[in-house]
Amino acid sequence: MVKFTKPMRLWLLFVFMAALWLGGLYWFTREIIDVLPPNAKPADAIVVLTGGSNRLQAGFDLLEKGMGKKLFISGVYHGVEVKELLENWKKEDKSNLDCCVVLGFEADDTIGNAKETITWMNKENYHSIFLVTANYHLRRAMLDFETLSPDLEITPWPVVPEKLDMGDWWRDPAYRSLILREYSKYLVTLVWHYLA
């Protein structure tokens, strides 16, 4: 019988943990949601989490198509493009939708987005949403929303950031850093989700 010394056991544990982490990363990058749900039905609201390209336009497009009663934009504090997009929206003679756009200024992270949105939804007595955010961010955002409001009906609406190719994400230093950070945050959120 082979006896493992303490350093050998620590090394084997490290190798095992590294393999587990890499396997999880492979799964995470392959399972990033980038396909829109087929035949999506209207929800009570459309929720956009600011912080990335194309998210706001996707939210406004859903609102214009009547896929929600109101559009809630969470995290406007960090969304420099929000003001510009709202101004462009009005220029396009669509100001009749002003009544249906609500801005949330309190959130500065994903869990803050979820808290801010759920507080607003409770006031509106809403129970279903389209959750619009970047495809790499969607799983973590859904975990936060589901943890805080298990009965909430969520239809994920992934937005693919410009120039992000999930087949070659690891070749681009900026996207490599982005995906590794998001994967690490996802793991922390996953642990929090199961402990909550």
Description:
The model has no long low-confidence stretch (mean pLDDT 86). The chain has 6 helices and 5 strands. The protein has a domain at 38-163: HUPs (Rossmann fold, 3-Layer(aba) Sandwich), CATH 3.40.50. A 5-stranded parallel beta sheet has the order 3-2-1-4-5, with helices on both faces. With 196 residues, it is an alpha/beta fold. Helix 4 (110-124) packs across helix 5 and helix 5 packs parallel to helix 6 (173-195). The chain has helices spanning 6-30, 55-64, 80-91, 110-124, 138-148, 173-195, and strands at 45-49, 70-74, 101-104, 128-134, 153-159.
Briefly summarize what is shown:
By secondary structure, this protein is α/β, with parallel strands linked by helices.
List the helices and strands and how they pair.
Blueprint: H1 6-30, E1 45-49, H2 55-64, E2 70-74, H3 80-91, E3 101-104, H4 110-124, E4 128-134, H5 138-148, E5 153-159, H6 173-195
Parallel strand pairs: 1-2, 1-4, 2-3, 4-5
Helix pairs in contact: 4-5, 5-6
Name the strands of the widest sheet in spatial order.
3-2-1-4-5
What is the molecular shape? elongated
| H/E topology pattern | HEHEHEHEHEH
CATH architecture of the domain at 38-163: 3-Layer(aba) Sandwich
Number of helices: 6
Global mean pLDDT: 86
CATH superfamily of the domain at 38-163: HUPs
Q: Note the beta-strand portion.
A: 5-15%
Class per helix and strand makeup: alpha/beta
CATH class of the domain at 38-163: Alpha Beta
- In the predicted model, the low-confidence regions spanning at least 5 consecutive residues are none
Largest sheet at a glance? 5 strands, parallel
